[in-house]
Amino acid sequence: MNSTSQLPYPRTFSHIGISVPDLEAAVKFYTEVLGWYLIMQPTEVEEEDTAIGQMCTDVFGPGWGHFRIAHLSSGDKIGIELFEFKNQENPENNFEYWKTGIFHFCVQDPDVEGLAEKIVAAGGKKRMEKPRFYYPGEKPYRMIYMEDPFGNILEIYSHSYELHYGSGAYN
């Protein structure tokens, strides 16, 4: 069979990179509140003639100078790279969902309300007054949009993505 006539293989998700203004505070938040594992301590990366330095120059272009990074992992083995750049800026509006690019990531916890309160207690905030049900009176699937203490938007689902959407959540 011709390879162009086959459906593409569904790739697995490897990791996501998140920029934060304070690397230590972010490591503390993501390990203590979301329970992610710290797999590489905060490390300084410099613009120099090393393998990692050259790779970063390929990505950022010359003149990036240095940044700090830590690596974490979720319970389902998804990697999280936390970056602290030297001239980090917080956007004036961190919820420009209509612009191209990633505007949120989602985690799953059966206790949506409990995790939302932990995020607020750690300096984050709710982007919605309270969790919403996808199938009110029918199924217990809930969600809420939140913001971490650094301005990154995250969503919490009570159940898996497939369960939330498999029955036509928009009908």
Averaging pLDDT over every residue, what do you get? 92
- The CATH C-level name of the largest domain is Alpha Beta
CATH fold annotation of the largest domain: Signal recognition particle alu RNA binding heterodimer, srp9/1
First-last Cα distance: 38 Å
Q: Which residues form runs of ≥5 with pLDDT under 50?
A: none
Number of strands: 9
Q: Looking at the chains present, what oligomeric state does this protein adopt?
A: single chain
Order of helices and strands: EHEHEEEHEEEEH
% residues in beta strands: 25-35%
| Largest sheet entry | 5 strands, mixed
Domain VOC: 12-159
InterPro entries: Glyas_Bleomycin-R_OHBP_Dase, Glyas_Fos-R_dOase_dom, Lactoylglutathione_lyase, MMCE/EMCE_epimerase, VOC_core
Protein name: Lactoylglutathione lyase family protein
Keywords: Lyase, Metal-binding
Word description of this protein:
The chain has 171 residues and is α+β, with helices and mostly antiparallel strands. The chain has two domains: 13-89, 2,3-Dihydroxybiphenyl 1,2-Dioxygenase, domain 1 (Roll), CATH 3.10.180.10; 90-171, Signal recognition particle alu RNA binding heterodimer, srp9/1. Helix content is 21%, strand content 29%. The chain is built from four helices and nine strands. Strands 5, 6, 7, 8 and 9 form a five-stranded mixed beta sheet that branches. The chain has a four-stranded mixed beta sheet with strand order 1-4-3-2, with helices on one face. Strand 3 (66-73) and strand 4 (79-85) form a beta hairpin. The longest helix has 10 residues, at 23-32. The protein is globular, with a radius of gyration of 19 Å. The mean pLDDT is 92.
